[in-house]
Write a structure and sequence with these properties.
249 residues, Rossmann fold, alpha/beta, 7-stranded mixed sheet, globular
């Protein structure tokens, strides 16, 4: 007889196991999959470019986010957004599962002379130690939509603990009707697969991030499609993504 469930973490870990056949792309064990993904830098992957997201640039240029302070970049990949934030005076922590991605990001940081603290590992596991906060900005470009539904609990807990009062949370994620799976949450557990990522509607994002606890303390600042940026642009932009900015009251 095997009785292993006593805490919420036990339940989350049990549910994690249902997706083992998909190589656990979003857990610490998924580093191997992502290492292979980032291994060939010449692959025509849109976000391999060394450009920051157009929405992040826009937030700062329009004064929706003030430069400086502390920032956390979740799922930083090769570090393009982390480097942009560091260039504007932010004290940046950036985390990714993949050692290959982190090595690429560190190389870019050295070339740019940027001071960024890169962390290799599971952001949820590091949330109470290396990524404890408080942060004035938590930024996520493409991490959230790779999480299975039950890990939204962990994600919201990270935001609750890491985001400073008055701080901003911003993300980009797959837009329903454009990219990602639109299956209902329960279907992913029946199938044991995430089909490359979850698509979201604006209504779903507003509902998920409406609060971080008892009070509705996340206020929507802006929610829109990412703008399509031409190759010559200094920014990255693909219209199959939503961009969202929230402010903690």
């Amino acid at each position: 007889m095997d009785r292993t469930i006593r805490t919420v973490d036990d339940v989350l870990n049990l549910l994690d196991g249902l997706f083992a056949r998909e190589a656990d792309r979003w857990t610490a064990d998924g580093a191997t999959w992502w290492d292979g993904f980032y291994a060939d830098r010449a692959e025509p992957v849109p976000f391999f470019v060394g450009k920051p997201d157009e929405n992040l640039v826009s937030y700062l240029e329009r004064g929706l986010i003030n430069p400086g302070g502390r920032a956390l970049d979740l799922g930083c990949g090769p570090g393009r957004n982390a480097l942009h934030l560091a260039s504007l005076g932010f004290e940046v922590d950036a985390v990714d599962l993949s050692p290959v991605a982190i090595a690429w990001a560190e190389e870019r940081a050295r070339e740019a002379g940027a001071a960024v603290r890169f962390h290799r590992g599971d952001a949820f596991a590091l949330a109470e130690t290396e990524l404890a906060g408080p942060y004035d900005l938590v930024y996520d470009s493409g991490c959230f939509h790779h999480l299975p539904p039950h890990r939204r609990i962990s994600y919201l807990a990270l935001l609750r603990n890491a985001l400073a009062p008055g701080g901003h949370f911003a993300l980009t994620c797959f837009a329903a009707g454009e990219m990602g799976s639109e299956e209902p949450d329960a279907a992913f557990y029946h199938q044991g697969a995430l089909h490359g990522g979850l698509a979201y509607t604006p209504e779903a994002l507003r509902w998920i991030f409406s609060d971080l606890g008892g009070d509705p303390d996340l206020a929507e600042v802006e929610l829109r499609r990412m703008r399509d940026e031409p190759p010559e642009s200094a920014c990255f932009g693909e219209p199959f993504l939503w961009t969202a900015l929230f402010r903690r009251r």
